[in-house]
Known about the structure:
With about 100 residues, the chain is mainly alpha-helical. The protein has two domains: about 10-50; about 60-90, no CATH class. Helices cover about 65% and strands about 0% of the residues. It is elongated, with a radius of gyration of 22 Å. The model has no long low-confidence stretch (mean pLDDT about 90).
Amino acid sequence: xxxxxxxxxxxxxxxxxxxxxxxxxxxxxxxxxxxxxxxxxxxxxxxxxxxxxxxxxxxxxxxxxxxxxxxxxxxxxxxxxxxxxxxxxxxxxxx
Length: 95
């Protein structure tokens, strides 16, 4: 019987069981399919409460993405249309 996940060990066990189920041919509507669905819900809830990822700062997210794309501030200005808009955004003055 499935129960709420209340500890890190139960969480690890649930992840392992989900992995095992996903390695098989699970038929929709089967006992295994239902177990996989319920475990996924329980894992999601446990992660939400115990392993929450904070929302990124929008400015940091823009700068990170620019770095990933190897984009210069000048290229961002081209996208935004004018240089002062880029300066407002990257200085944090625009919200």
